[in-house]
Design a protein that fits this description.
6 helices, 153 residues, mainly alpha
Length: 153
């Protein structure tokens, strides 16, 4: 279950790069992920979830702007891979499966970046505008996170 969650949180990183780190840091802070004695202990520090949450909310807003660059451009793609790796590593440390967790998180981020972009383009074409597609993508990411956190608890 942990590796599936690492993959799915990576997938969410491909949709919205800051949502998964925000969720994982809250899980670490609330004791759902035991990373206190690992190099990723900072994920459970008092202010880490707040910082990631502010960044996630900012990203949810900025994503809707017409000037926001493609998630598939190198900076955006790299950020999503790093985000997926961080989420996968946090889950991996908590389950004593660091390398598989990182690999699952990165794989999920690649799938989420490419698949999310394609799905959003199709939805935007179907709706005739991008905003409904973007909001559906936001909701999908949040639902996936909620299901993973419930499974981890």
């Amino acid at each position: 279950m942990m590796l599936l969650c690492a993959f799915l949180l990576g997938l969410v990183s491909g949709l919205r790069s800051m949502l998964a780190p925000a969720a994982v840091s809250w899980a670490a802070r609330l004791g759902m992920l035991g990373v206190a004695d690992t190099p990723l202990a900072f994920m459970g520090y008092q202010y880490t979830p707040i910082i990631f949450s502010v960044l996630a909310v900012g990203e949810l807003i900025v994503d809707k702007l017409p000037t926001t660059p493609s998630r598939k451009s190198p900076p955006g793609f790299i950020a999503r891979i790093i985000s997926g790796a961080l989420g996968g590593a946090t889950i991996g440390f908590a389950s004593r499966s660091l390398v598989p967790g990182v690999v699952a998180g990165v794989a999920g981020a690649v799938v989420g970046t490419l698949g999310g972009s394609a799905a959003r383009a199709k939805l935007a074409a179907l709706f005739g505008k991008d905003l409904p597609a973007a909001l559906i993508e936001d909701a999908a990411g949040i639902v996936i996170i909620a299901l993973c956190l419930l499974a981890l608890n």
